[in-house]
Amino acid sequence: MPFLARSLTGRPWTATITAAITGVLVWPFSVIGPLFLVVSMTAGAAYDLVLLRSGVPGWKRLMSAPALSGAVLFLVSLPAFSPEHLTPGTLITTLVGRIVGQLIAVAVARAIAAGLVKSGVRAS
């Protein structure tokens, strides 16, 4: 949702605000409770920070924003790892998985946003 909001509106801090709203809605139903709010807002803020100075971002920024967001998600998830899982292989795989997952999420969000715009939905 945060990536879709940012892709559709192109406005600064949209991903962070949407992540906060999503976090508040998910909080009561999530096992991690209020931590979900922190995790989602942190990822949204990292994404927004990279795109802050650009109205329509180029591919370089568009790829670095979810990559940073994935790296932040990785760092936020580190305290949840048990000590026996803090091996280089597990850490690298988790980091790559987070970054690739965020890249895929942005690609899907941009495709949905393009479809919505094509069907007549416009950000005001």
What are the key terms here?
72% helix, 5 helices, mainly alpha, globular, 124 residues
Largest sheet: none
Q: Which residues sit in consecutive blocks of at least 5 with pLDDT less than 50?
A: none
* Tally of helical runs: 5
Quickly count the domains. 1
Helix and strand layout, with pairings?
Elements: H1 2-9, H2 14-26, H3 34-51, H4 59-77, H5 88-118
Care to describe what's here?
- It is a single chain.
- With 124 residues, the chain is mostly helical.
- The chain has one domain (2-118).
- The protein contains five helices and no strands.
- It is globular.
- The mean pLDDT is 89.
Structure summarized in a few sentences:
By secondary structure, this protein is mainly alpha-helical.
